[in-house]
Amino acid sequence: MNDTFLKACRGEKVQYTPVWLMRQAGRYLPEYQKILAKLDFLTACRTPEIAAEITLQPVDIIGVDAAIFYSDITTTVVPMGMDLHYEVGKGPSYSNPVRTAADVDRLMVPEDSSEGLGFVYEAQKICARELANKVPLIGFAGAPFTVSAYMIEGAGSTSFAITRRMAFADTPTFKNLMNKVARHTANYLKAQAAAGANALMLFDSHAGLLGPRDYRELNLPFVKQIIADIKSTGVPILYFGLGAHASLEAISKCGADVIGIDYGLRLDEAVERLGANVSVQGNIEPYVFFRSRQEIQDRVVETLAFGKNARGHVFNLGHGVPQHAPVDQVKAMVDTVHEVSQLEAA
Amino acid sequence: MNDTFLKACRGEKVQYTPVWLMRQAGRYLPEYQKILAKLDFLTACRTPEIAAEITLQPVDIIGVDAAIFYSDITTTVVPMGMDLHYEVGKGPSYSNPVRTAADVDRLMVPEDSSEGLGFVYEAQKICARELANKVPLIGFAGAPFTVSAYMIEGAGSTSFAITRRMAFADTPTFKNLMNKVARHTANYLKAQAAAGANALMLFDSHAGLLGPRDYRELNLPFVKQIIADIKSTGVPILYFGLGAHASLEAISKCGADVIGIDYGLRLDEAVERLGANVSVQGNIEPYVFFRSRQEIQDRVVETLAFGKNARGHVFNLGHGVPQHAPVDQVKAMVDTVHEVSQLEAA
Question: Are A324 and B161 an interchain contact pair (Cβ–Cβ within 8 Å)?
């Protein structure tokens, strides 16, 4: 297996900089659109053969060094008692949002982690088998704050007003929710490692919603709780706190092997603040695919240079692949990362 | 007139820390809701007596040290040829979004700044008259990137995909648009100063959409262009680039007297990076109003301490007042800022 990604996660020497892309399995790929033309999003997530096929698509098509499992962070908490729906154009929503202490009390943390999520582990077993001689599989979950915010709002939101209000007006209830979600998430991630995931990633897409002090008091402790719990799996752990720009020093001590950096920060400054004990992942601007080939090359060279002083660097975007990114441009960037970094390592 | 706000903007000695709040004239006030129950948002903006009344409401109700003119950043570019509509629940939109070089060429930069915007200056004359013995009036506009992004998308967006694509795939067209919007915005702000505005603010709500390098290459030059042009008014100039966390050093040299800081950064760290030549405005977390009175007091004390080393500190939120903020809590915070900072200054 090409283990360049796993080596960079651990800070070991590599022959070139490994690269994968957030949302690499997604709408910009015609092969993905073809599958989603026939069935809805949640059905795709819940059908092991389909989820596995989508997960594997970008490995051959764009030539990345890791596959990220195709799923949605909202599905994970269904076994806790959340009633998930999906409407085209509106995205996922819960019909029973969590608003009160009683709502939190009713949430379950199933001891049997396969309860209601067997389709994930089945799909990952297929992926692991198919990928055996190719690249590692990254399993993932939403970080507890990001997942709890969805559970509280009942759907996506721009202001997450109900979440922030609950966090400050009823902090004990909010913390109880975070704790339950964290315990369930840890079980979920450990089961993914058992099913064949070679690395585990926590996506904290709403980390930037809280100010630095609140992030450190109300969010980060629960991230640490999960990471401490899943360390026993032995696989590299990645944490990506989108927008938590002021908290990198605290994040560097969360226990993860790799810290994701969004494109709002310069990677060399992030590396300096994170220190020598973690690897970094990121952080080229995702609309780079709409630039000329020469500009793509220039930005790749710049990003590789910014990541040079990190313990290890996993090349990635600073956010997901845009929906209309031209596939040939995406592939060109991946190739450029390999070529440029190989020359530099030689 | 209470000129504490203007003094803090200029870095002069004050007896207490002045405070006003972004969106202080807005939906959390029952007096505002009463007016908006009878007429739509754009009509309120465009009727001088109404816009003036809404602007003045928070001065007496919550006791702030400055009034901010009630308007919407989308109205400004109507005289450039943008066709603005407003739908309840959907917000403002343009039926003729700017997508091509020809679209940009068609945009006008009226020499007579009152053309199509006379209602603004009329309302500000009323405000200035009513406020003469109270507090200063802040005039404002959207910064060119934020306004251009709306013009390109035609409406609000979460990803601003079309804007980012144009900025990178057709940079000359994007820069032409920015230049035209910047020239029009400078005219608009100068006319506001002539009508009675005692300070001028540029809101760059989407500054964080571009990465640090693109922000400095494609956004900041046009902010500087406006500020250089409106310096002749002699009034303090404020710039707020929401989310532009990595660019404070560059922003400190944009020419503004005051730099707004969102709640994603710690104010003392922002002050250190901005240096001694500018004042700061911000940056308490806006959902602070849902905390207990004791916690509000603690956070006010903390924020005042973080702002202590700034050349001058205008106390404000790090984002707008939330829709459901209890008015008594808002007033309590304003009072606390005055009391605590007066004791410290004594």
Answer: yes
CB contact under 8 A, A169 and B290: yes
* Distances A158 to A150, A331, B107, B158 between C-alpha atoms, Å: 11, 32, 31, 8
Half-sphere exposure of A113 (CA within 13 A, CB side): 17
Helices (H), chain B: 4-10, 30-36, 41-46, 48-62, 101-106, 118-131, 144-153, 161-169, 171-195, 212-214, 220-230, 248-251, 267-274, 293-306, 327-345
> Quick check: B265 and B245 in contact, CB under 8 A?
yes
CA distance A183 to A226: 7
DSSP letter string, B65-84: S-EE----GGGTTGGGT--E
The label of the residue with tokens 């994968």 reads: A20
E strand map for A72-171? 84-87, 91-94, 137-142
Instruction: Check residue B344 and give its pLDDT.
Output: 84
Q: Is the pLDDT of residue A205 over 80?
A: yes
The string over A41-53, giving b where at least 16 C-beta atoms fall within 10 Å of a residue's C-beta and e elsewhere, is: ebebbbbbebbbb
Cβ(B245)–Cβ(A245) below 8 Å = yes
Are A88 and A40 in contact by the 8 Å Cβ rule? The answer is: yes
**Contact residues on chain A for B210, CB-CB shorter than 8 A:** 285
Whether the per-residue pLDDT at B12 is higher than 90: the answer is yes
Domains within chain B, CATH numbers bracketed: 4-345 (3.20.20.210)
Residue A15 has, within 13 A of its CA and on its CB side, a CA count of 5
Smallest Cα distance from B159 to chain A, Å: 9
Please tell me the predicted confidence (pLDDT) of residue A113: 78
Gap between the Cα atoms of B223 and B202, Å rounded:
8
Cβ atoms < 10 Å from Cβ of B272: 12
CB A22 within 8 A of CB A320: yes
For B22-41, the DSSP string reads: TT-SSTT-HHHHHHHTTS-H
Look at the alpha carbons of A162, A164, A167, A170 in this order and tell me if their dihedral is positive or negative: negative
Q: What is the pLDDT of residues A57-103, one digit of tens each?
A: 999 999 999 999 999 999 999 999 999 998 887 889 999 999 999 99
Q: Encoding tokens for residue B29?
A: 């006030």
In the predicted structure, residue B346 carries a pLDDT above the cut 80: no
Q: Which value does ipTM take for this structure?
A: 0.95
Q: Which of A252, A255, A253, A283 is nearest to A267 (CA)?
A: A283
Nearest to B167 by CA among B151, B183, B156: B151
Given this model, what pLDDT does residue A345 score? 78
| Long-range pairs of A339-345 with CB within 8 A, sequence gap ≥ 24 | A340/A297, A340/A300, A340/A301, A340/A304, A341/A16, A341/A17, A341/A304, A341/A315, A342/A15, A342/A16, A344/A304, A345/A14, A345/A15, A345/A16, A345/A17
How sure is the predictor about B284, in pLDDT bands with cuts at 50, 70 and 90?
Answer: very high
- Residue in A with minimal Cα distance to B156: A158
Interchain contact, B265 vs A212, CB within 8 Å: yes
Distance CA A89, CA A99 (A): 25
Distance CA A142, CA A317 (A): 18
* CB contact (8 A) between residue A291 and residue B169: yes
